[in-house]
Write a structure and sequence with these properties.
This protein is α/β, with parallel strands linked by helices. Helices cover about 35% and strands about 20% of the residues.
Length: about 190
Amino acid sequence: MMKIKGCGTALVTPFKDGKVDFESYRVLVRRQVEAGIHFLVPLGTTAETPCLTDEEKVELLRITRELCPDRPVVVGAGTNSPAQTIRNIRLLEPCGPDAFLIVVPYYNKPTQEGIYEYFKAVAASTSKAIVVYNVPGRTGVNLTSETTLRLAGKVALCGSCLGNWLTGIKMPFSMSSARIVAFAASTWALRLAL
């Protein structure tokens, strides 16, 4: 796995006449690579993934990997269903992503124990790193710092988009020797080495 660090771009999926515009997507990926972006995030929540077929998802990831062979690719695979998330991982893993971006299950509003069990099952389905994507404004539930620390021992990489950044700041440092990486959706990022 390539080291995931620096600034990454969550890629949108362009459409034209109701279909994925793969040529415009190529232009978008090339522009990011030429601009010096450190890693790319295809098929995340900004990529209209619920509107994509499995074949379109595979093709978008294949194009990303083809045009970005020397930089990390963190591909979105999360859904609100553990079974579907694991199916997405199995579908996308052969295309060579470096890590999977997995959103906290949306719509279902799981308990913290439910979130923990979801990510534990997802992490057990792959040897690739898992980046935990916490976006409570979209999912309806916030991943707590306690659950994040529990997950740190189960996933290869535990990252969190700072949906509620104060939760991350209050994280009890003495609870774990795991490494937690917190990603921010703005120009700053918080990195905690526990």
